[in-house]
């Protein structure tokens, strides 16, 4: 079962073009959507949720197009909370109880206590991190099967980020649950994601099992002369700085065996994105 299936999604808005995106979120898995600021991550999520109108394409949730019943099964968390600043968490509970049939007040208040959010404090007095925590709690409190999270850990300190990542891992313990998480904090995705979808200038440049990305890909730092001897079919991207080349390769284990004289280091998602964006493909 696919929790999300995105088919040929297109949108032109200003200078950004979303160009025929195709990807899936399998049920029971966490998929990380990564890319630099302006790559199209937030726009993609808004198109998926019909917040913005698509030019072309189709998005299926659990095999169906988006409707009111399906929305009950999706918890969407954007990077900003859309509530009046002079409202508190108690009033938010009353409002959302009338919107979501499956709203669980007990769960909502338990999570508020767990993350030490004051129920009677006005939202305008919350810090950015507190607002993001509240936003995530709201996304979880109607017992969704699918979470769609847009930069959910931005604005959180390292300790709070770890708490939230643990919460997402708890959520995914139920095999019917799935998560799509957009983030530029790639360390978070390296910790929890099963698959990575990398987007640049509105196009998917890579989608792959995270473990394959981290263990089969590598980075070679070499001279321009050495670059000429690296087989082109294993090069994902490279960047030249003066006399040094940084080369992202697709088959690190095979290259280590074939070229023992080259130093091949492990690769982070940040390394891969930076070299692809500023380098040559």
Automatic annotation (TrEMBL):
> Transmembrane region positions?
none
A single Gene Ontology molecular function, please? ATP binding
Statement: the UniProt record of this protein carries the keyword Nucleotide-binding: yes
SMART domains from the UniProt entry:
AAA
Domain ABC transporter: from-to ranges: 1-226
Keywords, A to Z?
Answer: ATP-binding, Nucleotide-binding, Transport
What this protein is called in its record is ABC transporter ATP-binding protein
> Which organism does this sequence originate in?
Virgibacillus dokdonensis
């Amino acid at each position: 079962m696919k929790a999300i299936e995105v088919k040929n999604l297109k949108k032109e808005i200003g200078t950004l073009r979303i160009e025929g995106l195709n990807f899936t979120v399998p049920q029971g898995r966490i998929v990380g959507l990564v890319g630099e600021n302006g790559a199209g991550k937030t726009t993609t999520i808004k198109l998926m949720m019909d917040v913005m109108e698509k030019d072309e394409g189709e998005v299926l949730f659990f095999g169906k197009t988006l409707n009111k019943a399906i929305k009950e099964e999706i918890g969407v968390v954007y990077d900003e909370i859309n509530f009046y600043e002079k409202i508190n968490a108690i009033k938010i509970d009353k409002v959302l109880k009338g919107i979501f049939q499956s709203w669980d007040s007990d769960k909502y208040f338990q999570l508020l206590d767990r993350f030490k959010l004051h129920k009677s404090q006005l939202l305008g007095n919350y810090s950015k991190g507190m607002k993001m925590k509240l936003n995530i709690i709201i996304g979880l409190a109607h017992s969704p099967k699918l979470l769609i999270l847009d930069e959910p850990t931005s604005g959180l300190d390292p300790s709070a980020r770890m708490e939230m990542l643990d919460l997402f891992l708890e959520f995914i313990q139920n095999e019917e649950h799935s998560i799509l998480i957009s983030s530029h904090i790639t360390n978070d995705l390296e910790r929890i994601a099963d698959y990575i979808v990398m987007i640049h200038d509105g196009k998917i440049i890579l989608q792959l099992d995270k473990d394959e990305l981290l263990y089969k890909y590598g980075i070679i730092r070499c001279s321009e002369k050495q670059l000429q001897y690296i087989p082109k079919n294993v090069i994902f991207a490279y960047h030249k700085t003066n006399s040094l080349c940084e080369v992202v390769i697709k088959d690190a284990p095979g290259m280590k065996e074939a070229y023992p004289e080259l130093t091949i280091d492990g690769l982070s998602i940040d390394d891969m994105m930076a070299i692809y964006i500023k380098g040559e493909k």
